Amino acid sequence: MGGKKWRWGVILDAGSSGTRLHIYRWKDARKALKNATPEDLRSLPKLMTEKKWTKKIRPGVSTFGDKVKDVGPEHLQSLIDHALSIIPAEKVHDTPIFLMATAGMRLLPEAQQTALTSEICSYLQRNTRFSLPDCDLHVQVIQGETEGLYGWIASNYLLGGFDHPDQHQHGKGHHTYGFLDMGGASAQIAFAPNATEAEKHWNDLKLLRLRTLDGNPREYRVFTTTWLGFGVNQARESYVRHLEDRYADAAGELPDPCLPKGLRTTLEGNLIDRRKTRTASLVGTGQFEECLRLTYPLLGKDKPCEDNPCLINGQHVPAIDFDVNHFIGVSEYWHTTHGVFGGKGDQAYDFATYQKRVKDFCGRDWQSIHRGIPSGNNFDVRLAQEACFKAAWLINVLHEGIGVPRIGFHEGLSKANVSKSALEAAKQKGFADPFKPVDKIDGVEVSWTLGKMVLYAAGQVPPAGGNDRYPVGFGSNTVDVGTPPDFQFAGSSWEPLRFAGNQTGSAADADADDDWDLDAEDILDRAKAHSTTGFFAFVAILLLFLWFFRKRDRRMRVYGSVKSLLRRHHHHHHPRGRPGKGGAARGGLAGLASKLFGHRPSSGPAYERVMEEGDADRFELASSSGAGAGADPDGDAYDLSDSSDGLSSSSKSPSGLGLSRLGLSSGLATPVEQHHPYHHALLSPTSSALDRAGLVARTESRERLTVPPHLALAGVGRRSRAASPTLLKSPRLSPLET
Question: Domain span at residue 271?
């Protein structure tokens, strides 16, 4: 039953080289609101993922363009099976699934794109129970601009640019980070321009609207664009064609300065033996400066710019203020700077250091490089032979295309008008760099898929005041208030959770399940905490009594006084007595007195605890409103429930667990006979404080325990089931007056 508070989401990133499954989880907004702190209320929903919740398979979806019917059973099914092994079965129907294809699918003819997305959606609807109400929304080929925007959301979400803007001030009131992504087929950029550029190019920006846990909207104006064909693989193909044109008269061998010296490959990049080849081949010369010069024209800087300024291929991009726009780079930006060339411990991208490493590596002979690669490791061989071209392409895109300053870390910071302490703090975090390649932030992979799911989770937060005037999503920056015509909604709603067998759900139903919102580990932790509290309270009381009654003569005097008082009370109310019942009566308070004072009754049957039919370990201890409530590690509070399906005493009572284990709770919660000689003594003002407020209160039960009517009328055990028919029919008992 545990885990009902969680929402789940599945997204399939259908890239050019393969499809990667991502699973995310977050707390249902209504549950998260229960004990949210002021800081929580100003924050976006908190998403989590784990390494085992991802899986990638090859090749990409786009390779099924000519065999559409095979994409489901031969490609998607293994990812679906993995998702079902992670997500609880009862939550699958309430879990959205998305497949979003990127650059690989964008290169296919439109007819093949449509056929593939249609078949994928139909397969998912036929063969899974995931939530997929709208094929156009859940299965689509997303534009590069959308991919960049999702990446921008993910980056700032992980870095804290949204929730803690005061900790990320870059100057001029700017607190968000720019996002750079490069894959095999395309590259993206997304950033929020400074105020001057945002006003100048307002119609080029996207309006992004999120919603924090308190239901209030958060709006951002972001520029995003994509360069299709500028990913490393597509750029390499363009580069090889350029070499073919340049050396058209060469006799089958094309000198390639972007390959290590002596390396020979086919035009497609496969290793070849010189003695066996008769086809055109590439021969590495290891001249990295020449490689930089030959890859520069691929940027298209000479293309006409219709809307100034432009960066790459004649595409307009607002001017970037690197004093406030600090970029992170993912995918190839990370792999190309941290793979073959090391630098995994670097806090920042240092252009001078990086270029030196690249030049040293690319100037080496291929045989010496190959000897350093473990035998049979074809993956590392491929990385090594492609490393020089990728490094040249990345340097050109970053510094000649986008314009990132060619400076080292320390040199760049020295120009900033900030204090030395601030620089040191920035240096430790790496946030003061104009560019920083990253793979993970706080252990979470930076992926545009996270941005999509953050948007979806924010859409499930109930809007403040119940007025959804500002829906979550993004669109053109064409209106000051309201929703633009091309607005793309998050695809989520703020309806209650739906569980298997109850598709409608309700607030009442969810509240009834609050106790089950705790995971197994939460329940165990609370049981331990509560039992420890009860145990120490009991030990303290016991030590107090042992100290007070440490002398036998004092114990016997107190015992004699209590016995004499009870005897007089008994004769006053029952002049004739009922010997047949006296033994059972003595089993209550008298039995407890004998244990405390060291006196054993001379006669009478032993006390027996009589319970209703059922398991003894399923009872609950009653408490006043709110008593014993614990704090969920995730922020939820739980209340003691009247339901018979509630938590056992070991989980929910702050003191009941310790008492029941030590056997003290059974000393008072007993079925009392019709003429119990001590039942007035239990309620009498002359009874000890321990009797009235200590052990009696700690052993009253909601259910499973039979409680005498006279105690029930006093409020003890008022949640219990009815007592025996004999007790209920007693003519001697009457309601207590208040």
Answer: 232-437
Is residue 197 part of the annotated active site? The answer reads no
Helix (H, G, I), strand (E, B) or coil at 541: helix
Query: DSSP assignment, residue 331?
Result: E
Residue after which a domain boundary falls, among 377, 406, 437 = 437
The token pair at 596 is 């405390």
Q: What dihedral angle (degrees, nearest 10) is formed by the CA atoms of 115, 118, 120, 126?
A: -140
> Could you tell me the pTM of the whole model?
0.67
Which tokens hold the place of 82? 């993995």
Do 113 and 149 meet the contact criterion of CB atoms below 8 Å apart? no
Segment 517-569, tens digit of pLDDT: 444 334 334 434 444 555 667 677 777 666 555 566 665 665 566 566 556 55
Q: What are the phi and psi torsion angles at 411 (to 5°)?
A: -65, -40
Domain tally, the chain? 3
Residues 324 and 414 in one domain: yes
pLDDT for 658-681, tens place per residue?
323 223 233 333 333 333 333 333
The angle at the Cα of 297, spanning 292 to 301, to the nearest 5 degrees, equals 120
- 8 A C-beta contact, residue 648 and residue 515: no
In a domain, 343, yes or no: yes
End-to-end CA distance of the chain: 43
Residues in the chain with pLDDT values less than 70: 1-3, 251, 274-278, 343-348, 407-432, 494-536, 538, 544-738
Which region holds residue 474: left if phi is over 0, alpha if psi is between -120 and 50, else beta?
beta
Instruction: Write down the catalytic residue from 119, 145, 147, 386.
Output: 147
One domain for residues 696 and 554: yes
Other CB atoms within 10 Å distance of the CB of residue 716: 22
Q: Is 198 exposed, middle or buried (0-12, 13-18, 19+ CB in 10 A)?
A: middle
The Cα angle at residue 491 between residues 487 and 497, in degrees rounded to 5: 145
| Final residue before a domain boundary, out of 386, 414, 437 | 437
String of DSSP letters for 174-205: ----EEEEE-SSEEEEEE---HHHHHHTGGGS
Residue 68 maps to a domain = yes
